[in-house]
Write a structure and sequence with these properties.
By secondary structure, the protein is of the alpha+beta class. It contains nine helices and four strands; from the N terminus they run βαβαββααααααα. β1, α1 (about 15-25) and β2 form a beta-alpha-beta unit. The N and C termini lie far apart (about 55 Å). About 35% of the residues are buried.
């Protein structure tokens, strides 16, 4: 089994890779990149990810970036772990991976605009960016809501890492003051995810990191909501 170390920051999309590693059941270690200390801008992390982002999975000394690629690698490494269904039909398989890509390429940028709109357009336009992202997410989450109203998990009756990505997206959006009220199926899905063993282990790892920050005298608080004031 290769040596694996995940570079992450708690609460970011690196949670998806963390859940995937826990579900895969492979040995790995973690290393927190302290963004609030500028560690993501240091040459050693830039060597792992040229843009200074997370997650990065270092495999036998070689960095692998992007959740889609990390999940694909772990699926190939542990195909029986249930990260993705083994459909048999190439079209069904492609559609399952398309759902993962929907989370990574379509919903993730919208959630980023909701969580940290000032990065996208500066403080003076943050509320406008938040509003546009919220409107787009109302539609996008509506699609997921309809799906989950008729089945237990994102891809049917079996859990998959698509659920992990959807959970992070939902959790982050709600944390940015997105209105969860109209989405009972997504709320129920999030609660089910919090009871999933791999998710519980990943969240415990994040909680331990936050506790370490506090012990170091640097407790972390997420940025305030940019929801426009009525």
């Amino acid at each position: 089994m290769p040596s694996m170390e995940l570079y992450y920051f708690p609460g970011t999309c690196a949670r998806v890779a963390l859940i995937a590693l826990e579900q895969a059941g492979v040995p790995f270690s973690t290393q927190v990149v302290r963004f609030f200390r500028g560690e993501h801008k240091q040459p050693d992390h830039r060597a792992r990810h040229p843009l200074g982002k997370v997650p990065v999975l270092v495999v036998d000394g070689q960095p692998l970036t992007e959740n889609m690629a990390i999940i694909g690698y772990l699926y190939a490494l542990a195909p029986q772990a249930g990260l993705m269904p083994q459909a048999g039909d190439p079209l069904v398989t492609a559609r399952n991976w398309a759902d993962l890509a929907l989370c990574a390429a379509t919903l993730h940028p919208l959630v980023t605009r909701l969580r940290v709109p000032e990065i996208i357009a500066g403080p003076e336009h943050s509320s406008a960016v938040w509003s546009r992202a919220e409107a787009a997410l109302q539609e996008a989450f509506g699609v997921l809501e309809t799906r989950l109203a008729g089945q237990r998990w994102m891809l049917g009756e079996a859990w998959s890492v698509v659920d992990a990505f959807a959970f992070w997206l939902w959790d982050t959006a709600v944390g940015a003051d997105f209105d969860a009220g109209p989405f009972p199926a997504l709320r129920a899905h999030a609660e089910a995810m919090r009871n999933w063993p791999a998710v519980q282990r990943a969240l415990a790892t994040e909680d331990a990191a936050f506790a370490t920050f506090a012990a170091e005298g640097a407790p972390f608080s997420p940025p305030p909501s940019m929801r426009p004031v009525a």
